[in-house]
Amino acid sequence: MSVEQVLDELREKIIKKLPDKVTITDIEFEGPELVIYTSEPKKFADNADIIRNLAKDLRKRLVVRPDPKVLAKPEDVIEIISKIVPEDSGITNHFFDTDTGEVIIEAEKPGIVIGRHGNTLREITKEIGWTPKVIRTPPIKSSTVDNIRQYLRNHKDERKTLLKTIGRKIHREVSSRDKWVRITSLGGCREVGRSCFMLSTPESKILIDCGVNVGSEDNGTPYLYIPEVTPISEIDAVVLTHAHLDHSGLIPLLFKYGYENPVYCTPPTRDLMALLQLDFIDVAAKEGKIIPYESAMIRKMLKHTITLNYSDVTDIAPDMKLTLHNAGHILGSSVVHFHVGDGLYNIAFTGDFKYEKTRLFDIAVNNFPRVESIIMESTYGGSKDMQPSRKEAETQLRKIVKETVQRGGTVLIPAFAVGRSQEVMLVLEEAVRKGIIEEIPIYLDGMIWEATAIHTTYPEYLNNDLRNLIFHKGLNPFLSDCFDQVDSVKKREDLLNNPVPGVVLATSGMLNGGPIMEYLRAYGPNEKNSLVFVGYQAEGTMGRRLQKGWSEIPVYNHGKTEVINVNLQVHTVDGFSGHSDRKQLMDYIKKMKPRPEHILTEHGDAKNCVDLASSLYRKYRIETRAPLNLETIRLI
Description:
This protein is of the alpha/beta class. It contains 21 helices and 28 strands. It folds into three domains: 71-137, GMP Synthetase, Chain A, domain 3 (2-Layer Sandwich), CATH 3.30.300.20; 173-383 and 579-634, Metallo-beta-lactamase, Chain A, CATH 3.60.15.10; 390-572, 3-Layer(aba) Sandwich (Rossmann fold).
């Protein structure tokens, strides 16, 4: 059956199920969604159950959009909205998309715009014809978010054409009678870095993550040239677990070599990966390294990115449904779950996950409707890889800061811009606010402020405690006076030449570049200062060398290599990691529902992957394996 025949069949089913006098003008596949166009959006708004019942019967993601002919003028829409919505909602902007018939209402208090049980939003829909969507006005403005949204609005025509093409590919007829599922490991097995897997069936090829190992000169990229992957143009979809470069760093490269299909991830992951990728190629250029792709490829990737919220079940291929779940690792990070065929097989990839509630996020999800196999990280999978509790870690950090400041020193904290930085900010802000440590400046350098702004753009991805603190108690800890953004070269130079007792939180987290290297060069020789690691330091990185006790380290500076003498005190504060420790990894499987039949361990050094796999087998008698890169494993 052709896609046109499928659409005709769906149109007939929809018409039969619609109430009397409710009509549609057209239906079309756009990406994973089936879009219904109507000249009577008021009638759909009056009966909220219509779409819910249709979606349930048709087993499709449905969206209703007004026929362009019935859309009111934008200036009239703004006036109508202002009359319906109470003033205290704090509406700050309106964005109109004539192709989708959507008006995005940006407000400080979106709940007031939505109204009790969505009543206010339905009233708006009835009056304006447009489909209203409400987003929260971010407390901290993000140039990344603004630029991405503006870019997508400017290219809406191209994107709509693209979504129609993708929609027809997704909903094509299943052509093969064979039934099998295979996993090919392309990177990240028995190592940390360049995570990449291929999930294959007779009908589809799905790439899960496509990262870069920024600390490796020889094994930095996944094996994208092998027969299972090529030609790249035939990959049906890329699914991204989270934004860190070891998972997302080479996705734009795919578009350089012919990939034209979608990238699926959560909205914050889309924005964060663009931020990190742009910084990645910028740093590479400054350090004289080969740039794997140009910024134009990042923009092309954004046009092809389809964002999904947690728990949305979405068709991404004729025989594949995808659902994203909270992974608790960084903002928008996902445990990705695939339902293959019509009940044939279910497989989950954890990506990086934290099986513990943190200051930022809820505990990673491990309950699924069905799951036969799971591929899980093993970063701290070794038998001795137990981390102290968050409370112990926070106490240790506060103690180091207090002692360093008292002796007139500065605390340097290298951190990834996304995740650990925000955790540390929350701990230090609370300590200053409660008087546990004296009022000191906490300088933020690199992308940390911009990444923090993206966190406040997506409060629904933070845990309830933090959301309440930010939006209900009127106390946004990220806006505390103790934080001082280093937002210019002059400000950084002043700080480097005139150090003051306090804290400098700067990227990069493993000392493999970024502004932290300038602070280490300036502050490293002084024994009054401290260097505190709060995240994982991969083998081969400068951070791991300092942990091992190196007192002299070579650094690249303006085309020359110089040696830094390290006399400051070096500390490692475990417990802040966004990765699960050994006990949490074991508990994740112990409490998983349903219990999987197969487990593959990856994203850890060889010893940890093997150790975790064998321990899970001994403890739970589940078939386990620690695959090597380039292995293909048949699951069914």
